[in-house]
Write a structure and sequence with these properties.
Elements lengths: L13 H56 L4 H8 L1 H5 L1
């Protein structure tokens, strides 16, 4: 079994090690920034979807209230028979 650490005969100067460390840190910051941008986009998409669903739910509530009250208007009849209502 070999020893851990640097190999004998290979000298590592402090400047190149420091430069690799800086490069690694820079790459890490770039990856972190990309990850946050992706997550922000994901949140925005989900918020839009939630808003659309809330709007649709409110529409269904109004339709149900009108049906329960027996107040079926021509507009409600057209809405119920429309493609949008059937697809949803």
């Amino acid at each position: 079994m070999g020893k851990r650490g640097r190999k004998p005969g290979v000298k590592q100067d402090g400047v190149s090690k420091l430069e690799r460390s800086r490069l690694s840190a820079r790459e890490c910051r770039v990856r972190k920034k990309l990850r946050y941008e992706y997550l922000e986009e994901l949140v925005q998409d989900r918020e839009k979807a939630i808003s659309a669903l809330e709007h649709e739910l409110e529409l269904y509530r109004k339709v149900c209230e009108q049906i329960d009250s027996g107040n079926i208007t021509e507009e409600l009849r057209n809405l119920v028979e429309s493609d949008w209502f059937v697809k949803s």
